[in-house]
Amino acid sequence: MIELNQIFLFIALISPLAVLARAWRPGGLNRGWRVAALVVLGVTAIAYWLDRKHAGYIGAGCWLLLLFLPVIGLRKVQDELSLGFLLDLMEEVQADIAALDRTAPELPSVGVSGEIRVLPEHRQEFLNDLQSVLQDLFTRYGGAEGDAFKVAVACYPKGQEKAPRD
After folding, report:
1. How many CA atoms lie within 13 A of 18 on its CB side?
2. Max alpha carbon distance in the chain (Å)?
3. What is the pLDDT of residues 1-43, one digit of tens each?
4. Which 3-state string (H, E, C) describes 38-61?
5. Could you count the other beta carbons within 10 Å of the beta carbon of residue 59?
6. Are 40 and 12 spatial neighbours (Cβ–Cβ below 8 Å)?
7. Is 67 helix (H, G, I), strand (E, B) or coil?
8. Contacts of 130 (CB under 8 A, 6+ apart)
9. Residue 27 pLDDT
10. How many other CB atoms sit within 10 Å of the CB of residue 140?
11. 3-state secondary structure string, 97-140?
12. Cβ-Cβ contacts under 8 Å for 38 (sequence gap 6 or more)
């Protein structure tokens, strides 16, 4: 009968091998995934050498921490970057603005719009820079004192220009 340790050992060996196969293809995954897969394989091999009865559990734990949970986190990030999230965000902004008291003597607000161009190989770097700048602002101005302002940032692919109708 197959034990749970054997199933975990199988997962801890096959999954990193699949990641490595995918990572070394042209246009494959980045270096970080290769390192994580190699670490899982290394830890599993050492665990198998030292304690075969528990190697599957150890390898699966390493797999869970270094490969599975990061993928789940990436999916969450991808969902937040999806157009559906942007549509929801824009609806929220519209509702918030519509709910403002337009008779108030002062409604401080600002809108910024522009177009940037990012090469596909630099998208992640751009997103990291944008996240860093925003995190700095949220850290600097995120205290409990002062007037509260909602900050919404949207980045999306610019569609083709529509030809003017006659």
Report:
1. 9
2. 78
3. 678 989 999 999 999 898 888 877 766 667 778 888 899 999 9
4. HHHHHHHHHHHHHCCCCHHHHHHH
5. 28
6. yes
7. helix
8. 153, 155
9. 61
10. 8
11. HHCCCCCCCCCCCCCCCCCCCCCHHHHHHHHHHHHHHHHHHHHH
12. 16, 20
Q: What is the mean pLDDT of residues 140-145?
A: 84
Name the more confident of 17 and 160. 17
Contact call for residues 66 and 42 (beta carbons, < 8 A) = no
Angle value at C-alpha 36, between 125 and 13, nearest 5 degrees = 145
Structure tokens at 144: 């409990």
Determine if residue 50 is left, alpha or beta; phi over 0 gives left, psi from -120 to 50 gives alpha, anything else beta: alpha
What tokens appear for 98 in the block? 């519509």
Query: Dihedral angle at the C-alpha atoms of 5, 7, 12, 16, nearest 10 degrees?
Result: 170
Lowest mean pLDDT among 67-71, 73-77, 143-147, 159-163: 159-163
pLDDT tens for each residue of 65-116: 888 888 877 777 776 667 777 888 889 999 988 888 888 888 888 888 899 9
What tens digit of pLDDT does each residue of 121-135 get? 888 899 889 989 999
